[in-house]
Amino acid sequence: LCLEWNPVLPLCSFQRCEEDEAKRLLQLSKEALSQGAGEDALDQLDHNEEELILAEYESDDEKKVVSGLEEDDDDDLEEEHVTKIYYCSRTHSQLSQFVREVQKSPFGKDTRLVTLGSRQNLCVNEEVRRLGALQLINDRCMEMQKNKHGKNAPKRRVSRTVCPFYSFEQMQFLRDEVLVEVKDIEQLVSLGREAKACPYYGSRFAIPAAQLVVLPYQMLLHEPTRNAAGIKLKDQVVIIDEAHNLIDTITCIHSAEVSGSQLCCAHSQLSQYMERYRKRLKAKNLMYIKQILYLLEQFVAMLGGNVNQNPGCQAVSQTGTVLKSINDFLFQSQIDNINLFKLFGFVERYGGPASAVKTNKENQKVAGLQDFLLTLQQGSDKEGEFRHPLLLRAASPLMQIEGFLSALTNANQDGRVILNKQGTVAQSSLKFLLLNPAVHFAKVVEECRAVIIAGGTMQPVADFREQLLCCAGVDPARVVEFSCGHVIPPENILPIILCSGPSNQQLEFTYQTRDLPQMMDETGRILCNLCNVIPGGVVCFFPSYEYEKQVYGHWEKTGLLSRLAARKKIFQEPKKANQVEQVLVEYAKCIKLSRYGNAAKEGTFNKEKGCVIMVGMPYPNIKSPELQEKMTWLDKTMPRAGGQAPSRVLIENLCMKAVNQSIGRAIRHQKDFASIVLLDHRYARPAIFNKLPQWIRERTQVKAAFGSAFAELRKVRTPCILCHCSPLSSSGPL
């Protein structure tokens, strides 16, 4: 991808301007090195700090000029990859379930399968596992690897512990064992403990020879992560399961946000590093560091702050959210004359954990900047004492800076920069919002022999076809859609669209009408009547936490809640995810008031009869600046479909995806029973009705009056069930 420059400025003149600026900074860096205290100053550094000095950085373009090679010579030494299938899903538990099915299948004994995962799931070093948080585990793992390859380095303040499981011979043994017999994540971890070999790296060694690679789809969709793991997609087959939120996932992975506090912290740390070691740094490295410092100053200035002052004490004069194109942001922050590609490469190399262990002496200095920033947080720890990483939680914000710089290299039309100005500079943030997920999915579909996007509730599929495949340049003739019915017999499910309540109040939960007392009263009367004929539990989904809270409060005042509580014990879904499990345990056969976006685990209520009530339609907040920008982008880039503007189609699709994920969880097994009641007459409109899953749509009854719907439900008299629904981000679809 190339950074698209403002067409007002000719590219050739811009390049000259950029080159002149780089030469000027490089000359200033050389002059700074030649001035000041002379050689005596160089000798004042503690010899223990030698490894903190960065090796000279060369961008990829500069390496090609020097070597005359387009590719690394090491590529010829890589093990050849056999033809394979990459199977991706959303969570590790879903991957383990898939692997167990492979083990039971006729192909289990003859398939070379390897499961990939995060360090959090595969690490067998108890000292590291106890850290808990993924980032802390990653950082500690990389630190221990550097220790292994730096035994002759001078002793420093941090621990020099080496991971006993990072043994090449033992990991080769683990690789061979993995390829002999299919193992899920739990079995892989057990094997790692027995063999005293790292499952995280040992499983990666098995990728080239594997026929089936099972991995979380975040690992496959992010190209740097893909490359670091040794995943090669050329002429391979990719299956993306549970893909209903694939677009949101790609958008989230390639968006980035940095706070004013992080920007100021990074500037402070980097300034200290430069001042401490400027006499020992190469001129080119000094130039890059000065450019980063300048960028950080300008970023903070865009938030209305000053890097030399405490961000928590700097009040922002004009609060609010402002969206800018990438080019406008670069020009207004006066960084348009800096080559972000080279600068991002520098930060990528020195600012975060390396993707592979470096063994030669020069490349050990890659860690120098990271180690120095770590020492700033450690203070005056005793020699050789390791301070718990939980105390170093924000050791360096350069990882976030790296992600934001990388995002700014997207094409101008593919994203926006959001300036979110809050009360103080520390609370404010810069966020890159990806508008076109197809640019990052294009390489997957270009390289692969075939890509299968699958899921239980993929409707409506137009988003995948238009926003992902067509925008990625996929030939429409290459796209094949396949949909099948459900395993349950027709009599096991009763979907009803209810258009009016017991008092003939029309059910239409728009933003204008849903707050009316008569609408909330009618909803309560419906629930009271249904609870009279439903012996089990009822789950009631609301469009948002706020509306659920409002309705709950109204029912308390009117006494309707007491009438409900006399029939069923009432639970409310907590906002905090770590409290949901406890609510599920206590739910049993009680009523639960919930919302769209519920965090309940899939399969929590297996082989049960069930009933789900959907109150209104969960349209996203169209006042969200991110959603408005997405809608504008779609209207400019996508054709109208069926006479509807693309932005309108997006809003309806987001709503129906949440609905389908909710009601789809009511039936999970062949012998399940369920009643589904959709409370809003708008569900009967053809444009909305046709976006329900086919297996539900074929069996849905539209009831204009409450009496006929009540009679149908009395015939069934099934217990009701809590179902799982797909998360809908509070910030909309982005």
TrEMBL record:
Family: Belongs to the DEAD box helicase family. DEAH subfamily. DDX11/CHL1 sub-subfamily.
One GO CC annotation: nucleus
Superkingdom, taxonomy of origin: Eukaryota
Name this polypeptide is given: DEAD/H-box helicase 11
NCBIfam families (UniProt xref): rad3
Keyword line: ATP-binding, DNA-binding, Helicase, Hydrolase, Iron, Iron-sulfur, Isomerase, Metal-binding, Nucleotide-binding, Nucleus, RNA-binding
Cofactor(s) required, per the database record: [4Fe-4S] cluster
Entry's Gene Ontology BP terms: establishment of sister chromatid cohesion; nucleobase-containing compound metabolic process
CDD domains: SF2_C_XPD
Localization per Swiss-Prot or TrEMBL: Nucleus
A matching Pfam family: Helicase_C_2
Entry GO MF terms: ATP binding; DNA binding; DNA helicase activity; hydrolase activity, acting on acid anhydrides, in phosphorus-containing anhydrides; iron-sulfur cluster binding; metal ion binding; RNA binding
Major subcellular location class: nucleus
Keyword Iron: yes
Stretches assigned to the Helicase ATP-binding domain: 1-293
InterPro entries linked to this entry: ATP-dep_Helicase_C, DinG/Rad3-like, Helic_SF1/SF2_ATP-bd_DinG/Rad3, Helicase-like_DEXD_c2, P-loop_NTPase, RAD3-like_helicase_DEAD, Rad3/Chl1-like
